[in-house]
């Protein structure tokens, strides 16, 4: 032996060297370096230490869902959001059965492109969305119906009067109103009768349907001006009076 010999570093066991860099799924496991001398000194078999270290490190790794399981879950969720129409179905029935938020209206809005313009007609076999699309449609504020705009002429006045009459349950038709207007005033909303008995009594007939002021006030319909020369107010009040006396303006074919 040389007089000035160097101390040699003890060699690591080959198992210890490999385990120091061993990885699971690409992530290195923090395993202890086990030398042959340490193992010998403690009397523990290296294989036992290796097994315990590997099990401990593996247990600490986060679990990852298998792709097949994840795919199955997605497909199941998608199927639950879709409904296939069968004979006898209606949107109302489907919405009620599946508790669609917003009812059949939301269901229709979510599937308008599939159903078409008529929500009352749905064909067997159609695939309807019941889930996210229906909920999104329900969350949208309902479109407010546009306020109708009526022309400022006889046609527009009659149509506006009919709309008001419908809200108040007053009967009458376009033709019935138009026929009486043309006889009474020829369509002039400022027409006034200054020669008949009413005129001589100081209450001349006025407007499109020639209504005297007391009758106008008695049968005036809320929502229209309190003005017997106003064409819509005049028509509506006259039709209200005719309904009370004759059943409808349609039944009036002469002076009334």
From TrEMBL:
<dbReference type="InterPro" id="IPR052196">
    <property type="entry name" value="Bact_Kbp"/>
</dbReference>
<dbReference type="InterPro" id="IPR023346">
    <property type="entry name" value="Lysozyme-like_dom_sf"/>
</dbReference>
<dbReference type="InterPro" id="IPR008258">
    <property type="entry name" value="Transglycosylase_SLT_dom_1"/>
</dbReference>
<feature type="domain" description="LysM">
    <location>
        <begin position="81"/>
        <end position="130"/>
    </location>
</feature>
<dbReference type="Pfam" id="PF01464">
    <property type="entry name" value="SLT"/>
</dbReference>
<feature type="signal peptide">
    <location>
        <begin position="1"/>
        <end position="41"/>
    </location>
</feature>
<dbReference type="Pfam" id="PF01476">
    <property type="entry name" value="LysM"/>
</dbReference>
<keyword id="KW-0732">Signal</keyword>
<dbReference type="InterPro" id="IPR018392">
    <property type="entry name" value="LysM"/>
</dbReference>
<protein>
    <submittedName>
        <fullName>Transglycosylase SLT domain-containing protein</fullName>
    </submittedName>
</protein>
<dbReference type="InterPro" id="IPR036779">
    <property type="entry name" value="LysM_dom_sf"/>
</dbReference>
């Amino acid at each position: 032996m040389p007089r000035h010999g160097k101390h040699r570093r003890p060699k690591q066991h080959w198992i210890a060297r490999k385990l120091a860099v061993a990885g699971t799924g690409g992530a290195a496991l923090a395993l202890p370096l086990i030398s042959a001398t340490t193992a010998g000194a403690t009397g523990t078999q290296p294989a036992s230490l290796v097994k315990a270290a590997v099990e401990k490190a593996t247990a600490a790794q986060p679990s990852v869902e298998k792709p097949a399981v994840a795919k199955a879950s997605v497909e199941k969720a998608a199927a639950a959001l879709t409904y296939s129409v069968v004979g006898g179905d209606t949107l109302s029935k489907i919405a009620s059965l599946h508790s669609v938020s917003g009812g059949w209206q939301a269901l229709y809005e979510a599937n308008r492109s599939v159903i078409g313009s008529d929500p009352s007609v749905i064909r067997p076999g159609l695939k309807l969305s019941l889930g996210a699309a229906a909920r999104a449609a329900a969350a949208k504020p309902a479109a407010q119906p546009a306020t109708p705009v009526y022309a400022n002429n006889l046609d527009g006045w009659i149509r506006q009067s009919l709309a008001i009459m419908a809200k108040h349950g007053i009967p009458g038709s376009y033709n019935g109103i138009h026929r009486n207007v043309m006889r009474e005033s020829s369509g002039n909303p400022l027409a006034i009768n200054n020669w008949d008995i009413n005129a001589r009594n100081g209450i001349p007939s006025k407007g499109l349907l020639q209504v005297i002021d007391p009758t106008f006030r008695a049968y005036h319909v809320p929502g229209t001006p309190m003005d017997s020369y106003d064409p819509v107010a005049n028509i509506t009040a006259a039709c209200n009076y005719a309904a009370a006396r004759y059943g409808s303006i349609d039944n009036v074919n002469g002076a009334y």
